Automatic annotation (TrEMBL):
Organism superkingdom: Bacteria
Species, as recorded: Streptomyces morookaense (Streptoverticillium morookaense)
Protein name as annotated: Universal stress protein
SUPFAM superfamilies for the chain: Adenine nucleotide alpha hydrolases-like
Family assignment from sequence similarity: Belongs to the universal stress protein A family.
Domain UspA stretches: 11-146, 156-292
InterPro entries: Rossmann-like_a/b/a_fold, Universal_stress_UspA, UspA
Length: 300
């Protein structure tokens, strides 16, 4: 096993800003570290609390902002040990911007965990500036807290577009094995669109059946390639004639986690996530695991 692989398996990383809304991510990250039998690192990047610049780092007549933030991290460690007494925990406080720090530290983590909201009225802003930035640039698996992470449904859901998503499928197999859960692999497909200059022709029943059979073969073929690595995992494959974002969002109602490849494309403003990923990050009913698509190119 290479040193890089060993390092990647060494810990679970979670972003923590000290807010009450960060606690679900902290709890979920502790559970993931327990499943993996590894260390939990709690990382608090800049800005600390609601303060936007280091000039505001001193609280007049009281402790410094650094001391307050360190105390918040200490309380986070205490909370984790209340759930898992013997879990190794490493608290990290840095002046590096939170998104950049999480991307950098996540390069050697088995899993990075982030929430979807931040402090008070800045929740939506922090979703865009931290969670979405990490999702667009992470090089390792990212778990984003969505919905309820407390009610176990004994199902890991994987969204599969094609054989190019084998990385996400492998992650799904591993997650199902760790949880002792059923692995459900969903492939969404649509009827082919007619050329814009041609009037749409009605599909014959034989054509519909052929399309459906071809769609069913996509998850079955992909699963067959990996089933031997996890023979004890129960697998259910599904092909649905529906938009992928809608199909996965609805299926996430009965899943503990939904896993998808993070398809990212270079745009004028940098790497951007695809529409299905965006839909799940905003509307899924359970946590969303993003597995980077290695075809997306280098990550800054």
């Amino acid at each position: 096993m290479s040193g890089a692989t060993t390092a990647r398996k060494s810990r679970v990383l979670v972003g923590f800003d000290g807010s009450a809304r960060a606690l679900p991510a902290l709890d979920l990250a502790a559970d993931e570290a327990l499943r993996r039998g590894t260390t939990l690192e709690i990382l608090c990047g800049w800005p600390w609390g609601r303060h936007r610049s280091p000039d505001m780092a001193m609280a007049p007549g009281g402790p410094s902002l650094h001391q307050l933030s360190r105390a918040s991290l200490d309380r986070a460690v205490t909370r984790v040990h209340g759930r898992a007494r013997h879990l190794p925990v490493v608290p990290t406080l840095t002046t590096e911007p939170a998104a950049r720090a999480l991307v950098r530290a996540g390069r050697t983590a088995a899993l990075t965990v982030v929430g979807t909201r931040g402090h008070g009225g800045f929740g939506e802003l922090l979703l865009g500036s931290v969670t979405l930035r990490v999702a667009a640039h992470c090089t390792g698996p990212l778990l984003v807290v969505r919905g309820s992470a407390t009610n176990e449904r004994n199902c890991v859901l994987v969204g599969l577009e094609s054989e190019a998503d084998l990385g996400a499928l492998r992650f799904g197999f591993e997650e199902a094995a760790r949880r002792g859960a059923v692995l459900r692999v969903l492939h969404a497909w649509r009827y082919p669109a007619a050329p814009s200059l041609c009037p749409p022709a009605p599909l014959q029943w034989d054509d519909v059946q052929l399309l459906a059979k071809s769609a069913e073969a996509v998850p079955e073929y992909a699963v067959a390639a990996l089933r031997g690595e996890h023979p004890g995992v129960e697998v259910d494959t599904v092909a649905m004639c529906l938009g992928a974002g809608h199909a996965l969002t609805e299926a996430s109602r009965t899943a503990d986690v939904v896993v998808v490849s993070a398809h990212r494309r270079a745009r004028r403003l940098g790497l951007q996530l695809g529409p299905v990923t965006h839909t799940l990050l905003h509307h899924a009913h359970c946590p969303v695991a993003l597995v980077p698509d290695t075809r997306s190119g280098p990550t800054p």
